[in-house]
Specification:
There is one protein chain. The chain has 124 residues and is mainly alpha-helical. 23% of the residues lie in helices and 3% in strands. The protein is built from 4 helices and 2 strands. A two-stranded parallel ribbon has the order 1-2.
């Protein structure tokens, strides 16, 4: 990994406002989101604002979350163990039962939940 890949983009959050799937997810319309992303391949929500979104009813396997803002998001019960969560912020997210990548320490997760720090995640 290069130094530029290790750093977190310090710019503004990316808002894919032209993506109907993003809009459906932000509005809580998981059925439409699923229809729009079926067969689409990776859905790149890297560095996007997904604050307050309920991701429990969404197939997140193909969603890229690197650097995403998940403040107040509902992630309960999700398996995020294979996701690249570098730069993600979890401030006040609901994370009961979430399986996080083994490379991210409990202290790192706790700091992100309580203080809004960005996760440092280096895949092995």
């Amino acid at each position: 990994m290069s130094d530029s890949e290790d750093s977190v983009d310090s710019g503004a959050m990316r808002l894919p406002i032209d993506d109907p799937a993003y809009q459906a997810l932000r509005e809580g319309d998981t059925a439409t989101f699923s229809e729009l992303t079926a067969g689409r391949g990776p859905v790149d929500f890297s560095y996007c604002d997904l604050g307050g979104v309920d991701l429990r009813k969404v197939d997140i396997v193909n969603i890229r979350l690197r650097g995403a803002r998940l403040k107040g998001a509902d992630l309960r019960g999700l398996d995020l163990s294979e996701h690249d969560l570098h730069g993600v912020t979890l401030n006040n997210a609901r994370v009961s039962g979430v399986l996080f990548p083994a490379e991210i320490s409990a202290d790192e997760i706790r700091m992100s939940l309580q203080e809004g720090t960005r996760l440092r995640h280096k895949r092995q």
